[in-house]
Amino acid sequence: MMKSKAEIKLIGDEYAGFYSCGLTMLGSSTMRRFTKVNETDELYEALSDDGLKLSVSTVKSAACDAYEVRTFFENASPQELELEMITSFLLPDIKADRIHRILSFWSAEGRVKTDDIVSLNMEHSWNNMAYRVEKFGNVGTMPVRKYFPFIALEDSKEHVFTAVQLYSPASWQIELVVRAGDVVTLSGGIADRDFGAWTKKILPGERFEAPMAVVAQGSTLEEVCDKLVKAQQSDISPVDEDMGITFNEYCTTWGNPDIDKLKRLADKIEGKGIKYLVMDSGWYSECGNWWEYRGDWSINKKRFPNGLKELADHVRAKGMIPGIWFEFETVGYKAKQFEDTDHLIKKDGVPLTIGGARFWDMEDPYVQDYLKKSVIDRLKEDGFGYIKVDYNDTLGIGCDGDGSLGENLRKKVLATQEFFHRMRREIPELVIENCSSGGHRLEPSFMQLASQASFSDAHEIASLPVIAANVQRVIKPQQSQIWAVLRAKDTRERIFYSLCATFLGRMGLSGDIYDLDDEQWELLDRAILFYRKAAPIIKNGFTDRIINNVGSYNLPKGSQLVTRCFEDKILYVYHRFEDSCSFEEFCSKNNVDLSGYKVTDSYGDAARDFSAQAAILS
Question: Per-residue pLDDT for 442 more than 90?
Fold first, then answer.
């Protein structure tokens, strides 16, 4: 059983010393206040004589072999106190020689970065005195930017992996500390005062809960990742439990939808097994450019002269659920709301402006009322059953409010998450897609609020299958909507390449769908049939292999094989890049033996570079 402890640091108390100040707040004199410790299998409590209480609950997940860790600090003293650090989890004395992190930038999500403890210069000092610290994380409101909130420590001799996923929707940090011996202390939580400008005042009688973490152990990286992902308790709409296929028109109209284009699309894909037709950005404001007018959610009557209900009704008449795009936290610089500064987030007393956008203060009742009318009432009145929630920049280190920069930021994001809850309370069957310039919010607390997520904005690039495979380690494939943008010029190989990638998650279509010829449509129809057969494996299975030797995302070379198992079946998806080899040769080189299985269904043909194939084996 994984058992977590915790630490806090209070302002005014002594820092640890030994060259650690500014690197870590662990080991401070605050922890010397606690003189009494109670410990059971599921609860760790540290108590002080003056009424402070630090408690950690470590409870087995109801979903899988992982442990949910919750940390609480209670101030029962007569004085106001101010935290400048609190851990969500703290795992001491882990034997490890490697660490695995998961990197992420825009349209380059999910790359695994593996480092040796030695190469990080983290070996203990000769007299076990000085701290060795490796600290990483994210500052801002895109919690998956540069790193996912994830870490796995590996003991390669004993083949033991210890992994953690942090449920923190704003600034977060993870720390590895080595001081004595060949063991690592692993901790993480809200980005502290040093890292994320965070402090938190705790009044007498108040209790504060840190963001949750989930911990798992296993014998491979894929095993611990599977446990962490399965522990995510996502609020999937009952409408969306069947792995329905989405068509999003963004890569068709590029932000210029209108009623004629959308009706034409609905007519073309009617009866093709597509469940959702989603209208993306550009439906709002009379003036045009979708990026500049975000926040003005008045209907563009030039594009939709009769309103949006006409579109939603038409889509439903074609047997599909209509969807609509919003970026409701953001205000573009040409929208009239851009000057509504009383209700926008401020920093240093002025509206926080980033890349031509400002941001609503989601804690403001006026904003909540405006968005209720603009978003929730629009969904209800016009009959949309699906909302794509986008978010296209980050607030950075923090904002004005009644607390520290980091604490104000944290509360703004929690108010956004409450709006997600409100949408589902008012429209219980609503399907929510979590998007943030693609994958910047693929973080567990956001994933738990959505039915689906945009896996990336990697719409048509060569590395799309690599990203689609890599994000399986951190989100459920059941929720990971993979773009397959189909073009009239696509060759047979290109169609296989695009559509096979969707078998790594949820099939999401876009592109020149009404310009495909009969042969191209036949290939798409076959892919949809194959996806339907593979869906139970995608939804319920275990990804036991993600093998690729790809270096550059821009110029991928080699091949990739992903195998996912469920009951007595295996789904494999094989993609070839530049300088690749056949499936049989790849399996031989990588000691993959599938000879005991027979193919029951297949799709694609990986006969040359930049082609792909998939099969279901039993």
Answer: yes
548-603 pLDDT per residue, tens? 989 999 999 999 999 999 999 999 999 999 999 999 999 999 999 999 999 999 99
Structure tokens at 299: 């209907």
Interatomic CA distance for residues 83 and 1, integer angstroms: 29
pLDDT above 70 covers what percent of the chain?
100
The closest alpha carbon to 551, from 112, 98, 104, belongs to: 112
Full domain range(s) for residue 430: 245-454
- What residues pair up with 507 in beta bridges, in sequence order? 482
Residue 594 in any domain: the answer is no
How do strand 89-94 and strand 184-190 relate by DSSP bridges? antiparallel
* pLDDT band at 1; cut points 50, 70, 90: low
Q: Residues 281, 221: one domain?
A: no
Is the same domain home to 294 and 368?
Answer: yes
Question: Which of 423, 454, 485 is where one domain is finished?
Answer: 454
Model confidence pLDDT, tens digit, residues 351-397 = 999 999 999 999 999 999 999 999 999 999 999 999 999 999 999 99
Cβ neighbours, 10 Å, residue 252: 23
Assigned domain for 199 exists: yes
374 exposed, middle or buried (CB, 10 Å; 0-12, 13-18, 19+)?
middle
CATH number of the domain encompassing residue 203: 2.70.98.60
Q: Is 343 exposed, middle or buried (0-12, 13-18, 19+ CB in 10 A)?
A: middle
pLDDT for res 182? 86
Over its C-alpha atoms, the chain yields an Rg (Å, rounded) of 25
The answer to whether 603 and 613 are in contact (CB under 8 A) is: yes
Which residues on adjacent β-strands are paired with residue 279?
A: 324
Place of tokens 């904002």: 399
Assign 593 to helix, strand or coil: coil
Cα distance between residue 574 and residue 548, in whole Å: 10
Residue 124 and residue 251 share a domain: no
d(CA 359, CA 343): 9
The runs of H, that is alpha helices, within 270-329 are 309-317
The β-bridge partners of 226 are none
- Other C-beta atoms closer than 10 Å to the C-beta of 265 total 22
Q: Determine the pLDDT at residue 286.
A: 84
Q: Is 414 a member of any domain?
A: yes
Nearest to 251 by CA among 515, 67, 591: 515
In a domain, 598, yes or no: no
The gap between the terminal CA atoms of the chain, to the nearest Å, is: 34
pLDDT digits (tens, 9 = 90+) for 456-485: 999 999 999 999 999 999 999 999 999 999
CA distance 265 to 315: 9
pTM beyond 0.90: the answer is yes
Token pair in block for residue 511 = 């592109």
Burial bucket for residue 127 (CB in 10 Å: 0-12, 13-18, 19+): exposed
Q: Both 313 and 421 in a single domain?
A: yes
Judge if 174 and 275 occupy the same domain. Answer: no
Q: Is 267 left (phi over 0), alpha (psi -120 to 50) or beta?
A: alpha
Angle 259-269/309-317 helices, nearest 10 degrees? Answer: 10
> How many H helices and E strands in the chain?
13, 35
Rounded to the nearest integer, the mean pLDDT of the chain is: 97
Work out how many domains the chain is built from and give that number: 2
